[in-house]
């Protein structure tokens, strides 16, 4: 190849790249340079956009794992070599690290799905290993039983045939040696089988954990469409959740998400609330009555999971409103929904902020402590009037339990 035909060199890496992104880009550039062709020519070979390939090699965009795997295959074919597992593992680790450094939900989802596929593959291999070891153990057990039968026969002959004592003793000693050897093999196989079963259990736990994480990153399934109408809608916002998620390890983060799900399920069983949306750190719910909406909001604020979030320095705010709500394809629309979201963003930490319509409905449902009705379960205190973007001036209310009322969770 003449100098005129040499491919143009790749541009230097951006100095502002993270360490993880730079490591991955360096490895990809080393592989790509081994092909000895231009980016444009390689884009035709692998049916990909040349601009996207350039960004992958410059570290400005995280490449999908399929691109990396295709590049490794092309380089191995060009060199006439087989793909090295060590190379794939290094690239896999660098790809995971670059995705986690970016913190992009789509990148984290892709990496987590890859980890789940890898754990599932290892789990299947472990199951095959268990089956092979089990069959080997059964074969050795059968062979040991046959030898024990032969040994008993020899010992019987040893007792009645003294003339052939020498040959019988030699045969007996050989069978005893074989028996000891088989017993050692059986012990080793049992130990290996036990280890394989423990590893299989660990892989199943890892798969379950990764499935939970994938479900959390993908978001819950869309709820069935609700008929438009007046209802209570609440939003719980966890301010600082992204910062906390970076401090927690994978197991602690999954535990936190699971505790939040269990609390929502428990509250739903008590109040009939439907938790229909979980986006990043927001949890939303709807109830047919204002009283059920107020009880749901207060139960969430009083749960041990909310207390744990406070200990982690996460600000938990809850807004709840009552009014006309429209739903389509699992998406809630309308001014009432927007107001609930705004209230969850301006409310006091760990408290419930409600709109005037919900407070009025609680009075009509005889659930609010007002003059002439001191048996209500809730108290409301008018807060300051303030403008809310897109909704004008509103007067939120601080919603709390009445002094003599108790939480259903405590009961």
Description of the structure:
This protein has helices at 19-33, 39-46, 50-58, 65-79, 85-102, 105-160, 165-218, 241-247, 250-271, 290-302, 304-311, 335-346, 356-364, and strands at residues 229-239, 274-279, 282-287, 315-328, 331-333, 352-354, 378-382, 386-388, 392-394, 397-401. It has 411 residues and is α+β, with helices and mostly antiparallel strands. The strands form two sheets. Strands 1, 2, 3, 4, 5, 6, 7 and 10 form an eight-stranded mixed beta sheet that branches. A two-stranded antiparallel sheet has the order 8-9. It is flat, with a radius of gyration of 34 Å.
What sort of overall outline do the alpha carbons produce when their principal axes are compared? flat
| Through-space gap between termini | 82 Å
Average pLDDT figure:
81
Order of helices and strands: HHHHHHHEHHEEHHEEHEHEEEE
Q: How many DSSP helices?
A: 13
User: What class do helices, strands and sheet pairing give?
Assistant: alpha+beta
């Amino acid at each position: 190849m003449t100098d005129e035909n040499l491919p143009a060199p790749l541009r230097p890496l951006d100095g502002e790249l993270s360490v993880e992104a730079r490591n991955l880009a360096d490895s990809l550039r080393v592989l790509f340079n081994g092909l000895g062709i231009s980016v444009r020519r390689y884009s035709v070979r692998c049916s990909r956009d040349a601009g996207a390939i350039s960004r992958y090699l410059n570290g400005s965009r995280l490449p999908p794992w399929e691109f990396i795997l295709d590049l490794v295959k092309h380089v191995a074919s060009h060199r006439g070599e087989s793909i090295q597992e060590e190379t794939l593992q290094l690239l896999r680790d660098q790809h995971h690290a670059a995705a986690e450094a970016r913190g992009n939900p789509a990148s984290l989802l892709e990496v987590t799905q890859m980890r789940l596929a890898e754990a599932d593959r290892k789990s299947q291999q472990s199951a095959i290993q268990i089956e092979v070891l089990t069959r080997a153990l059964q074969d050795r057990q059968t062979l040991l039983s046959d030898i024990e039968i032969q040994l008993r026969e020899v010992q019987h002959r040893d007792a009645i045939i003294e003339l052939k004592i020498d040959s019988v003793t030699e045969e007996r000693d050989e069978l005893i040696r074989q028996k000891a050897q088989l017993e050692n093999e059986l012990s080793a196989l049992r130990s290996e089988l036990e280890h394989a079963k423990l590893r299989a259990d660990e892989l199943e736990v890892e798969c379950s954990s990764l499935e939970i994480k994938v479900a959390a990153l993908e978001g819950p399934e869309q709820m069935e469409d609700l008929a438009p109408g007046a209802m209570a809608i609440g939003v719980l916002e966890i301010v600082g959740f992204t910062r906390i998620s970076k401090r927690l390890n994978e197991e602690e983060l999954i535990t936190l998400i699971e505790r939040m799900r269990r609390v929502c399920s428990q509250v739903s069983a008590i109040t009939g609330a439907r938790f229909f949306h979980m986006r990043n750190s927001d949890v939303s719910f709807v109830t047919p009555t204002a009283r059920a909406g107020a009880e749901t909001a207060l139960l969430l604020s009083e749960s041990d999971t909310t207390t744990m979030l406070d200990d982690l320095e996460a600000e938990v705010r809850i807004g709840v409103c009552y009014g006309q709500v429209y739903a389509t394809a699992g998406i809630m629309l309308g001014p009432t929904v927007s107001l609930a979201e705004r209230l969850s963003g301006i409310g006091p930490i760990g408290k419930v902020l409600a709109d005037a319509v919900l407070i009025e409905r609680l009075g009509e449902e005889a659930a609010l402590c007002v003059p002439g009705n001191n048996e209500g379960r809730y108290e409301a205190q008018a807060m300051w009037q303030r403008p809310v973007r897109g909704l004008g001036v509103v007067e939120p209310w601080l919603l709390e339990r009445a002094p003599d009322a108790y939480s259903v969770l405590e009961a």
